[in-house]
Amino acid sequence: MATQLPTTDIRIGADMIRRRKGGTPIVCLTAYTYPIARLLDPHVDLLLVGDSVAMVLHGHETTLGASLEMMIAHGQAVMRGSARACVVIDMPAGTYEDSAAQAVASARRIIGETGCQAVKLEGGVDVAAQIAAIVAAGIPVMGHIGLQPQSVEKDGGYKIKGRTDETVAALLADALAVEQAGAFSLVIEGTIETVAADITHRIAIPTIGIGASSECDGQILVIDDMVGLTVDRVPKFVKQYADLRSVIAHAAERYALEVRDREFPGRVHVFSKTSGGDEA
Ligand code: KIV
After folding, report:
1. Which of 7, 95, 164, 221 has the lowest CB atom count within 10 Å?
2. Nearest atom within ligand 1 for CA of residue 50
3. Is the pTM of this model over 0.90?
4. What is d(CA 164, CA 15) in angstroms, rounded to the nearest whole number?
5. Which residues have CB under 8 Å from 94's CB, separation 6+?
């Protein structure tokens, strides 16, 4: 049974994040579930229900496995588990690229069914019309440029962006287009430090870096990468702050031994007619 979350009337909104430009770095992490949202909420400014959930929790090869229903279900869990953080939900591939009308309908569904503070979508110049339309519908948007996981098949892998004059110019054009379209913040993923610094200085909305250096206005990591739960390869830009895989593996190993040895359940875990009360 869930215990009550501490009540707070200061859920951080997209506007509050926007006003943090150039100030104390904005702390962001992904979250996909109720218990993790509860653990992270007191420590972060923003929780992103990233479409990385398709890979991290559902075992898909890429984020293209995410659906609107998947994002909404995880978004609802994260909203239930948080009281303070600004919650942003990713728009999955296939739910916004076709037209501004499609993008607005998908964003409205996400906001309407979860109550989250904002949506995020990938792209720059190519999705500026969609961002402008969602913002005009009263829904705050976070942009995402640079390495765009939804384009991994098109790009032939997870490639760092901004190593040639041409890609630097494209990144800057994307950043300016996202800002101009009215986004409240911009994720920059997988680019070189000087490019991230230049974009951060040129736009008036906060940049949130992932593999984009400390020159950004904030940072984000995938929670499972950060706590050492990720099963497959972790990107070079991740710092692992805990090793939960080995904690869980050791716990499972001990549990298996104790069950096989009939050591668990022990006397304290057993009910008799007279002991323990009615509560399980
Ligand atoms: O889906 C995701 O987790 C993301 C972050 C890596 C920014 O988009």
Report:
1. 7
2. 1
3. yes
4. 34
5. none
